Amino acid sequence: MKNSIGITFSILITLALAGCGLLTQPAAPPIILPTSTSVVLATEIPLPTEIPLPTAIPPTATPEPTAAPALVKMLNAEVVFDNYILRTGPGRLFDRIDMYNSGAFVKIIVREVSNNWVLVQTSDYISGWMNVVGLKVQGDINSLPMFNVDNVQILQGHVYLPGRLAASGIVVSLAPVENDLAESTDTSTTNQDGLWAIYLPLETEGNWIIGPNADGCGTSNAVTGSGDDCTLNGKLPAGQEITIPFAQELALEFEILPLNP
User: Which residue from 193, 153, 169, 172 is spatially nearest to 240, judged by alpha carbons?
Assistant: First the structure.
């Protein structure tokens, strides 16, 4: 009986509290719905499909070293004749510049092809051509540069021994037709290659005769003996008549004839 009364009393108290709003259910925790969030992805940096190579800078061309001009070593020479002539060109028909006496010193600068004439500088600093016959050269003339003479007429050729061997030391002379070669206007002595050359001014013209007319004892391979006993091994050929101006590309060739053909 007591228990029934107690339970009834508890229910009444609960209803009373609920009516007064004093008894409430605990509120459920709020549900927070996710908002629409955009996912930020890391930006991918694309790899280059081809890596451009740097533009090649062409190397600056290295200039070829310029060869230093070779120093011309001049030879000293002494004049051995009085009144020896310095000329404007390598020949006896060229104008005279001055004359020098025996004992005068010159410096030889270059030679022409046959080694008969040399370009010199005198002690008074004048340049011109002298024939080597009147010079005592200190040194080897073949060591000098060879000079191609221009603005002249050139007569040149060879003298040969039988068998087309070069004849050195043979004198080739030039003279007008009305004179014989004994009264030569100019001469050239063959060098070791048998070569001779005679230079004439451009204005030279007319009919001339040219040919070998002497040999040099001690300097020629076409002779035997020396001094008064010097004998040519053969006979000199006859001269040729030519008309000047003469074609530069033509050579005048001579061959020493055997004594007993």
Answer: 172
> Per-residue pLDDT for 141 more than 50?
yes
- Residue 71: predicted pLDDT: 65
CA angle 26, 29, 35 (to 5 degrees): 160
From 113, 107, 87, 89, select the one nearest 98 (Cα to Cα).
Answer: 87
What global pTM score does this model have? Answer: 0.71
Which candidate, 191, 201, 180, places its Cα nearest to that of 91? 201
Distance (Å, whole) CA 259 – CA 165: 16
Q: List strands edge to edge, sheet with 96-100.
A: 96-100, 84-87, 127-131, 117-122, 105-111, 75-79, 135-138
- CB-based contacts of 77: which residues, under 8 Å, 6+ apart? 105, 106, 107, 108, 118, 120, 135, 136, 137, 138
Is residue 20 very low, low, confident or very high in pLDDT (cuts 50, 70, 90)?
very low
Q: Distance between CA atoms of 258 and 3, rounded to whole angstroms?
A: 182
What the chain holds in terms of domains, given with CATH numbers, is 75-143 (2.30.30.40), 153-255 (2.60.40.10)
Interatomic CA distance for residues 195 and 111, integer angstroms: 14
